[in-house]
Amino acid sequence: MAQLKKTENQQINKTLPLLSIITVVRNCEETIEETILSIINQNYQNIEYIIIDGMSTDNTLDIIKKYEKHITYWVSEPDKGIYDAMNKGIQLATGDWINFMNAGDYFFNNTTISLVVSEIIKQNFDIIYGNFIALDNSTNTKLLIAARSIHSIVKGSVFSHQSCFIKSDILKINNFDLKYKIAADYNQILLLYLSGKIFHHIELPLAIMTIDGLSYSNIDTYKEQAKIIHKYKPYSKYTLNFIFLISLYYFRLIIGPKGTGYIRKIKWKYIK
Predict the structure, then answer these.
(1) For the residues of 202-229, what is the DSSP string, one character each?
(2) Is the whole model's pTM more than 0.70, yes or no?
(3) Max intra-chain CA distance, the chain
(4) I want to staple 38 with a disulfide (CB 3.0 to 4.6 A). Which of 89, 105, 106, 163 is the partner?
């Protein structure tokens, strides 16, 4: 296990919010560097950067060490999966807000966090989320995916966790439920919505991510989201959404990745 304390050259402006950016990684030597550069090159300085590595056996740790003077804290140790690693990051975070930018994903540009902070200081929001750019490797295209209204959360995910910032005090008492292997982030956001937390949508892309990752490439995502919704079956609208998501699950199973990619190109804005 290895870890680093805060670097001496990290300047914290206590008049502005401190943002904790957490990267969860395991054996991602081909993509981790781009993620790290996306974070350390932000023009906003009040960033606490935490990397949780799940005992990588490739060159991932060498790349992390290359940039360790820019990293507030990093650790490499066994975990119980991606959401367990993300929970570790939450407990380590000391910032006012938390964002998860996992290996292979990165911010839209180097002013993204400054943009988010400008919204944070306007009003007392609990969760801020935005749109994102998806890289669809099945069709070799970029797609602009607009986040939907938070009120649609009872029908399925409405935004990605990469384009979402949540107050840390909320996350510290609302960790990811490890019984969900793919959609624990959806379960978390749904529960925060049902508990009355205040959401704010920024109508701009905040993150870039591949859609062949854990949740997007796995058709079981629909199935797990449906199970989560079904927990609230006393409400008829949730039961109907459960049936809808199960139908989507089997539809994706039938049409396969290429068919899904084609529908994405029609549904979302195609970026050249």
Answers:
(1) EEEEEEEEESSSTTTS-THHHHHHHHHH
(2) yes
(3) 56
(4) 106
